[in-house]
Amino acid sequence: MRSHCVSSLATVLAGLALGLADVPTLAAEHNAVVDLTSIDTSVSPCENFYRFACGKWIGQNGLPADRARWSRFDSLAERNVEKLRDILEAAAAAASGERTKIGEYYASCMDEAAIEAKGLDPLRDELDRIAALADVGALPELIAHHHEIGVASFFTFNSGQYYHDATQVIARADQGGLSLGDRDYYLKTDAKSVEIRAAYLRHVATVFRLAGDEPAAAAKAADQVMAIETALAKASIDRVSRRDPKNLDHPFRRQELTALTAHFDWDRYLADVGTGSVELLNVGWPDFFTGLETVLAANDMPAVKSYLRWHLLNRMAGLLPKAFVDENFAFFGRTLTGTKVIRARWKRCVEGTGRSLGEELGKAYVDAYFPPATKAQTVAMIRSIAATYEENLRTLDWMSEATRERALGKLAAIVDKVGYPDKWRDYSALKIERGDALGNAVRAASFDFRRRLDKIGKPVDRGEWGMTPPTVNAYYSPRYNDINFPAGILQPPFFDAEGDLAGNYGAIGAVMGHEITHGFDDEGRHFDGEGNLKEWWGPADATAFEGRAACLAREYGGFTAVDDVKVNGRLTLGENIADNGGVRLAFAAFRRALARGSGQSIGGYTPEQRFFIGYAQIWCGNTTPEDLRRRVQIDPHSPGEFRVNGVVVNQPEFAAAFKCEAGTPMAPPPDKVCRVW
Questions:
Q1: Do residues 530 and 481 touch, judged by C-beta distance below 8 A?
Q2: 25, pLDDT greater than 50
Q3: What pLDDT digit, counting tens, does each position of 111-149 carry?
Q4: What average pLDDT does this structure show over 141-166?
Q5: Which of 205, 217, 305, 439 lies in disulfide reach of 222, CB 3.0 to 4.6 Å?
Q6: Residues 172 and 40 in one domain
């Protein structure tokens, strides 16, 4: 794939011929993005635009039994899973060929009879290794092994760009070791959190019983796990604070890290993971490792072994016998998210193959389902939207000239990646054996761990992707300063190569604007155009930004997600800035493109109205109350309803398009409108 740098935006603006000539114009009555049958005309768009645009879809698309959330995003992802299943089943049936590995991996995962017959035997050596742990001095070697096979015991260890020289890769140690995924699950005292912890404790004890423990021993081991994880949670930094990259920037020499943990031999750990020569590490949150030292000093070896055994069993549960699979779903699926039934085995195996062999499976997907024309049209749209951002930056009245020039430089340096990587990952060194489902997963985890650690001390490979091609998503990387649109999202209901310009700009165009805006949100703005953590804003500019961002934090913090649980306006701030900025950029680019076409109405809706409907409908969805509660705690994205209503209330163009009277819910007075970009 050729990467396109948005470096000639002035040329684009001069005539818009460079980018927009390739953007598809309206195909009369063809609308695979905007779904007019989903609109609930009994609701005024000026009262609740989300309910207007999505009301009938919500009523006609109830939650599937195996889903905690069902949206147009999820519907497309499910279609992609079905396409991947076809690829994998064909590969599994072939005796040989270039897709042998993905076929063997999938077939092994699907062989439930073999998995059942083996029981816990595939984990016996690992369990014996934990049982043989003699003292804390041997712990670094065991944790190093766990990290290599994908078991995130106690903390995380990885590679990453150096915050102060984004061309180089260094080692990274950070907090981790929490099975519930977030510190607040262990620390909050509200009734629901207490209830979840009690259910979690029962779940851990049940898994220990399945592994052979007597009930009393299982209950004691579960208590030990909870005590250690709670202590680690107390030492962890919260999610909102992690949004500030300065809180995660702590370059340590090896001896400085060693001084934090007298009970943990870092020299031995680094040697065992194959990074024995490392001298410089970034320590995400040093206080966590001070807390880890306290945990290791306060707990005896039986408690530490219970914790390690739990993390091993929990990590491997999906590829163990059915009793483990069902119990894992009972807590992490039914209790935490409200999902009624577990997803079909084949769906789980498709997803598992994608996690372990993502680019090999992705290459097959691209060959079958991603036409080159879609890539060209996507790049043209990105350029048209980036051009509107340049114009926006040049005309801002709250930014100084010095900061403006640096912002323009960063914008020009953004690289857009579309569809798939230039260079596919080489999996030839990864051994996959048919009939060895758990072994395949362990070897794949080890392969990926080694691949990541092998980067340490080497120049950054900016051609790498953080998502696989079939993924229905997109992202911006502040460290790479690039925007990435996998092939999986570049189809209806986000993009239709032959479809309505308004729908395309409202849906995928808003996503493009969203990702570009991430470069200048509350996190992305701290990085320069090369990906270095650098304060390039003038003090007055930073103050102006913070004031505007605070308006959005207050707005979204007032939304009630479920029961008495509010959206966290600070946790979701970056995504809310990107949503608001992305729609504004996409609409401006759309209006320029529309000038070339007829701009006729379809189904009684003007092009401007269809733009906003197209945006709203990508967020149509249903969610269980349990999953809403969970997402509000851990997800930096606002729930779908607020990604719609929280945006359009800040867009005067929306009120004009739907002729909303001032003071209606979707057309608040000017002093209530928030705008960052």
A1: yes
A2: no
A3: 999 999 999 999 999 999 999 999 999 999 999 999 999
A4: 98
A5: 205
A6: no
Do 540 and 400 touch, CB atoms closer than 8 A? yes
Query: Do the Cβ atoms of 314 and 207 come closer than 8 Å?
Result: yes
Question: Does one domain contain both 604 and 496?
Answer: yes
**Residue where the block lists tokens 């635009």:** 49
Residue 557's CB is within 10 A of a number of other CB atoms, namely 15
Rounded Cα distance, 169 and 289, in Å: 22
| Same domain assignment for residues 415 and 311 | no
**Of residues 139, 135, 125, the one with CA closest to residue 308:** 139
Q: Are 55 and 39 in contact (CB under 8 A)?
A: yes
- What whole-number percentage of the chain has pLDDT above 90? 92
- Say whether pLDDT at 4 is over 50: no
- Would residue 369 count as lying in a domain? no
| Same domain flag for 565 and 481 | yes
Which residues, 6 or more positions from 79, have their beta carbon under 8 angstroms from its beta carbon? Answer: none
Q: Is the peptide bond before 302 cis (omega within 30 degrees of 0)?
A: no
Residue 517 shares a structural domain with residue 566 = yes
DSSP strand pairing (482-486 vs 415-419): parallel
For residue 597, name the pLDDT band (cuts at 50, 70, 90).
low
The pLDDT assigned to 598 comes to 64
Task: Give the relative orientation of helices 539-557 and 640-648 as an angle to the nearest 10 degrees.
Answer: 120
Whether 149 and 446 have beta carbons less than 8 Å apart is answered as yes
165-175/621-623 β-pairing: unpaired
- Alpha carbon distances (Å) from 656 to 129, 169, 424, 608, 642: 67, 49, 47, 9, 20
**In this structure, what CATH number is given to the domain that contains residue 26?**
3.40.390.10
pLDDT at 599: 80
Active site residues: 515, 579
For residue 484, report the phi and psi dihedrals to the nearest 5 degrees: -130, 125
CA angle 126, 312, 117 (to 5 degrees): 70
Q: What is the pLDDT of residue 14?
A: 29
Please state, in angstroms and rounded to a whole number, the distance separating the CA atoms of residues 616 and 607: 14
Q: Are residues 304 and 210 part of one domain?
A: yes
For residue 88, is it within any domain?
A: no
Residue 409 lies in a domain: yes
Task: Tell me the two tokens of residue 457.
Answer: 């001390």
Considering 319, 342, 365, which residue would you say is the last residue of a domain?
342
Do residues 337 and 399 both lie within one domain? no
* Residue 605 Cα distances to 15, 39, 587, 623, angstroms: 29, 11, 16, 29
Q: How far apart are CA 101 and CA 98, in angstroms?
A: 8
Q: Which residues contact 422 (CB under 8 A, 6 or more apart)?
A: 1, 2, 3, 463
The CATH number covering residue 317 comes to: 1.10.1380.10
> What is the spatial distance between Cα 333 and Cα 329, in angstroms, rounded to a whole number?
5
In a domain, 106, yes or no: no
**Into how many domains does the chain fold?**
2
Q: What per-residue confidence (pLDDT) applies to 331?
A: 98
């009277």: which residue's tokens? 661
- Segment (H or E) for 157: strand 155-162
The sign of the dihedral angle between the CA atoms of 591, 592, 593, 596 is positive
DSSP sequence for 417-448: EEES-SS----TT----TT-HHHHHHHHHHHH
- Whether the CA torsion 543, 545, 548, 549 is positive or negative: it is negative
Domain hosting 615: range is 4-83+374-423+463-672
pLDDT at 155 over 80: yes
The stretch 512-541 carries a mean pLDDT of: 98
Q: What gap in Å lies between CA 381 and CA 367, rounded to an integer?
A: 23
